[in-house]
Specification:
The protein is 16% helix and 37% strand. By secondary structure, the chain is α+β, with helices and mostly antiparallel strands. The longest helix is centred in the last third of the chain and has 11 residues.
Length: 266
C-alpha cells in the first residue's frame, strides 16, 4: 500500500454558479415541487457535477481510476457510508466552490477477501463560507456479491413509514439527476452478467434521500448513513424512523431486511 501515500491528500476544486436546473431534476425524481431556492439536506449530490469526457470513462461507467480517485484494481465499487454537516443553506444562483480531498486509503480484510476503503471529503462553500461538508466512504472489492442474508432480529417499530416502489425508470432518472454513470444502476446485462448482481442496484444515496423525505420536516445540522445490504429494482423500499433526543434514527427496509441505517441531528 505504499502507493496510497502518493494519492492521499490529493485535491481538486470546481467553481460554478449553482444552477436551479440541477435541483429541478432531483425534485422531479422525488415528486417535489421545484426547484427550491435553498438546497434541501443531501441534495448537494445533484450540484456541481463534473463533466467527464467519454474517453475518460472506465468499463463500469465511472471516470477511470487514476484520474482523481486512485487506480484500485478491484472491479466492484460501492458507496458505503457518508457523514455530512450542514452549516447553512446552499442557494441557487450563487457562485459555489466545491473542494474534494482524498483523506485516506486503507485496505482491510473482509469475509470474502480484501477490501479497499477510500475516504473522500467534499466541502461546498458560498460567499467564502462552508455550507455543506461531507465525508464519503467508498469501498472497492473483487469479491462477487454475496446473497442477501436475513436479519437476525426484526427492526424496531417506527414513528413514521413511507413506501417507495423502485423500478428501472426511477433508477435511471436518479442517475441522470445526480450525474451517476455507474452501469449497475441502469444496464441490466452489465449488472447481472459482469458484476454478478441479481438485478439493477438501487443507489445508496437514493435510499438515503427516501429516508429523509419520509421524516417529518426539521432543520438538520447533521446527517449520516451506513449501507448494510443492497436493494434491487422492483423492490419496495420502506423508509422508517423515530424521534430521539436531539434528532432521529432512520432506517430503510425491503421486506424484513434492513438495508440502511442513518442518524439525523436537528
Amino acid at each position: 500500500m505504499d502507493w496510497a501515500k502518493d494519492w492521499t491528500g490529493r485535491r481538486r476544486r470546481r467553481v460554478s454558479v449553482l444552477a436551479a436546473s440541477d435541483l429541478a431534476r432531483l425534485a422531479a425524481v422525488l415528486d417535489r415541487p421545484g426547484p427550491p431556492a435553498e438546497v434541501p439536506p443531501a441534495w448537494h449530490w445533484a450540484c456541481l457535477a463534473d463533466a467527464v469526457s467519454r474517453a475518460d470513462l472506465g468499463p463500469d461507467g465511472h471516470p477511470k481510476r487514476g484520474l482523481f480517485l486512485p487506480p484500485i484494481a478491484a472491479p466492484r465499487r460501492m458507496f458505503a457510508a457518508a457523514d455530512m454537516t450542514f452549516f447553512g443553506p446552499l442557494r441557487t444562483g450563487l457562485e459555489t466552490e466545491l473542494i474534494e480531498t482524498i483523506a485516506a486509503i486503507e485496505e482491510k480484510a473482509g469475509a470474502s477477501g480484501p477490501l479497499t476503503f477510500v475516504t473522500l471529503d467534499r466541502v461546498f462553500s458560498q460567499d467564502g463560507e462552508p455550507r455543506v461538508s461531507e465525508r464519503q466512504t467508498i469501498v472497492y472489492t473483487a469479491a462477487p456479491p454475496a446473497p442477501r442474508a436475513p436479519d437476525e432480529a426484526p427492526a424496531p417499530p417506527g414513528d413514521w413509514s413511507r413506501e417507495t416502489l423502485t423500478d428501472p425508470v426511477l433508477l435511471f432518472a436518479f442517475s441522470t439527476a445526480t450525474s451517476n454513470s455507474h452501469r449497475i444502476h441502469y444496464d441490466q446485462a452489465y449488472a447481472t452478467e459482469v458484476e454478478g448482481y441479481p438485478g439493477l442496484v438501487v443507489h445508496g444515496p437514493l435510499i438515503a434521500l427516501l429516508m429523509l423525505e419520509a421524516m417529518p420536516a426539521r432543520p438538520l445540522t447533521r446527517f449520516s448513513f451506513r449501507a448494510l445490504k443492497p436493494a434491487f429494482a422492483g423492490e419496495t423500499i420502506m423508509s422508517k424512523g423515530r424521534l430521539v433526543d436531539g434528532g432521529a434514527e432512520l432506517w430503510a427496509q425491503s421486506g424484513g431486511d434492513v438495508l440502511m441505517k442513518a442518524k439525523a441531528a436537528f
